[in-house]
Amino acid sequence: MKWNLIFLDKVESTNDVAASLPRGSCVVAKEQTKARGRMGRKWISLRGNLFFSLVLKSYGAQTPMLSFVLSLSIAEVLKKFDAKIKWPNDVLIDGKKVCGILLENLGETVVAGVGINTQNAPITDVLYPTTSLNGEIENNILLQNILDAFDLNMMLFETEGFQKIKEKWLSYSKGVGKEIVICLPNEKVKGEFVGLTDEGAVQLRTNDLCCRLITAGDVFFLDERKKE
């Protein structure tokens, strides 16, 4: 895709700016003052990091799969850092969050917001520790590499469906085949992360050997000390 790149200095949210733009737009900002993450959480946007939003077409019931396509693309670009994906779409380095994605469905279009700690890792009170790339990749180069990888994976998604994306995504996923904990609004569920359904839900094998499907929640790994 030929992306229409729009570079801005300071905005409240790149997703908000992108919401009124046509498909193929990519809004990039040096700073966000009211950025947000999944479940309405605040995303701290330190100047120097990479923030951008893509305006995409809707794929109906398959629209949530776009976050898997995007997180896969970012993990591929950050492969030299041994990047892993924490379900559903956080990208980790050394077990710490370096990238977050927020997908917002606007009907006929979808806005995918991305924040990557390229220079600085904010100190936050959110559920997961953060890290940064320490300036090892220039923002503009990183952005272009991600767009190139995303275009290739979108072509795969459109021609062969989510199955191929799922296979690639699982190869980068942290915790597959191991016990994890998923925090839900009213409970914590522990079990073996078996895989993903074709709808992107986690297949979790619990102690009673039942397979439970989780569609939303916060994943934590049993080998980590910081849980919440």
Structure notes:
The chain is of the alpha+beta class. It folds into 2 domains: 4-172, Bira Bifunctional Protein, Domain 2 (BirA Bifunctional Protein, domain 2); 179-221, SH3 type barrels (Roll). The chain is 22% helix and 33% strand. It is built from 4 helices and 12 strands; from the N terminus they run E-H-E-E-H-E-E-E-E-H-H-E-E-E-E-E. The strands form 2 sheets. It has a 7-stranded mixed beta sheet. It has a 5-stranded antiparallel beta sheet with strand order 11-10-9-8-12, with no helix packed on it. A hairpin with a 2-residue loop joins strand 5 and strand 6. Helix 2 (65-77) crosses helix 3 (139-160), helix 2 packs across helix 4 and helix 3 crosses helix 4 (162-172). It is globular.
Instruction: Measure the end-to-end span.
Output: 40 Å
**Backbone CA Rg:** 17 Å
- CATH topology call of the largest domain: BirA Bifunctional Protein, domain 2
The count of domains is 2
Low-confidence stretches: none
Q: What average pLDDT do the residues reach? A: 91
The CATH class name of the largest domain reads Alpha Beta
Q: What is the ordering of alpha helices and beta strands? A: EHEEHEEEEHHEEEEE
Q: SS-based structural class?
A: alpha+beta
For the secondary structure, the number of strands is: 12
Residue share in helix: 10-25%
Shape: globular
Count of helices? 4
Percent strand: 25-35%
Q: If classified by CATH, what would the architecture of the largest domain be? A: 2-Layer Sandwich
The largest beta-sheet arranges its strands as: 1-2-3-7-6-5-4
CATH superfamily of the largest domain: Bira Bifunctional Protein, Domain 2
